[in-house]
Each structure stands twice: as structure tokens, then as C-alpha cells.
Amino acid sequence: MRRSPWSSAARAALLTVALGSLQAPGYRVTYNMRLLERRGDEARVIATGMVSGPEDTDLRLSLRTDTVELDALLRVAAEPDSATLSGAFFGRHRAGYSRRGLPLWEFDGYRRAARVAWGGVARLYPFGQPRTTRSHAVWLEITVRRDFVGGETRPADALVVSDSSVAIALAAVVRPRRAVVRLTLSRGDTSSAIKVLDMVPDASSQSVTFTLGPGDSHTLDVALARPEPPRTAWDSALATGADVVCLTVLDSASAGPAPARCGRLDNVARRIPLSDRDTLVATFSWPAAR
Length: 290
What we know:
This protein is mainly β. It contains two helices and 19 strands.
């Protein structure tokens, strides 16, 4: 069958579009948050916070009072002139006490979504909307901004609390595309030099050679993977393991199964026993911003 003269050109055009989308400049998303409380005619700010990161950054939020607890994950779907802010909410509130005086809790889960302009304010009532304009109320004001950046950016968050009547915590949730892995092989009192690897989850393994002394070297194959899917709907909806990676180590000198160790990108050293003599120390961290 004779090929169309346009087939090669079409494939080339599609390849150009695909490469262009992969190499296109990125954006940084910023969530600015205020937690406010109203009693009567007076409204006051309880806390202010900020979470920012690459365009796929989500905001994990936790609120606690004596009678209500709420965990939420907010995410934004970008559009040219606006954004859709959606959230998964899991809460519980104290419904009373048992005959023995123990607190009884009711659990609830729901999802909400709203379309807002970039830089616009979305108002959320995490503990329920007040019945009247003078009723006691606690609400969140969230502003989402998107800024152009020329390279990769790291997640960041900040929180300032002016009143402890409502306990609040927030964090940037980013699923890492790359991770910096620092490895050291130790044997007794001897340790190798630190090996620094720029690794991609679920990519091919890399061979690393450690030198423990003159004529004493050891080669390991290491690979980075994402953890197993969350076991509960709560963990899945709140993306509790989003920044977790797992390092698998294959030692040709060992006949046992390949050991693995999972951890967050928090720059905390984790020990991976390889044998009775050797231990691999691994540290996971975010790549440097560029």
C-alpha cells in the first residue's frame, strides 16, 4: 500500500508538539489562606498561612477545636482565566457522651468545588455555615495565584497563628517527579564517601560503586519507586503518602530478596541492612530549585 506523503510530516508535527509540551515553561501555584472567626459584629483573624509549589501542588489542611476536627485536601485545576478549587473534607464532631461519660463522635466526609478567578477569594465554612449573619462562625478565605517560573521549584509553606482557640496545620502536597538520594555504605567503623544521585521514581536502576578502602569496593544496583497505594480511603483522599519514595537495593553478592526502604523527602537518614557486615544509609530530599 502506498503511503501518504503527509504521514511523515504529520508524525514530525505531532512529535514537535509533544516535545514542546514537555519542555514548556512551568508555573508556580500559591495558596494564600486566612482563618477568621466572628462573634456578634466583630470578626478577627485567627491565623494566616501560605502554601506554594509547582503547578500540581495541593494544600493539606487540618483544623481542631474541643468539639470538632477536620482534615481536608484542596487542589486547583488550572484554566486560562480562572481555576476550579476543589476539596475533599473528612471531619468528626462530638455528638455527646456515653453513660460512662466517654465522648461520642460522629464522622462525616464530603467534597466541594468552586470556580474562582486567579487572585479571587473563595470562602469556606469548615464547621458549617452560620444560620444568621450574627451567629458565631469560623471560615476560611483562600486566594489562589499562578505565576510563571522558568525552572523547577520546591514546595514551601508558612503559618502564623494569632489565636490558639482553633488548632491549625497546613502543608504543601507535591508528588515528586525527581528526588536527590544520598547514599553511604558502612561496614563496622568504616564508611564510604557519599554518593549523590538524581533519581526519577519508577525509572531504570542505577549502578553505584562504593569504596571502603584500598582494593575494597562494592557495587550495588539501586532503583527508586513510588509506595504502594494507600490502604484507606482517608489516606487516599488526603494524599498522606504523596511525598514518599521507596529505594530498592539489589546486591549481586547476596542471594536474599532485594531490601527496600521508604521515606519522605525530609532529608532524614534511613538505614538499610544489606548483610551482617554492610549497611546502606539513604537520605531522600527535594532537588534544588533552579
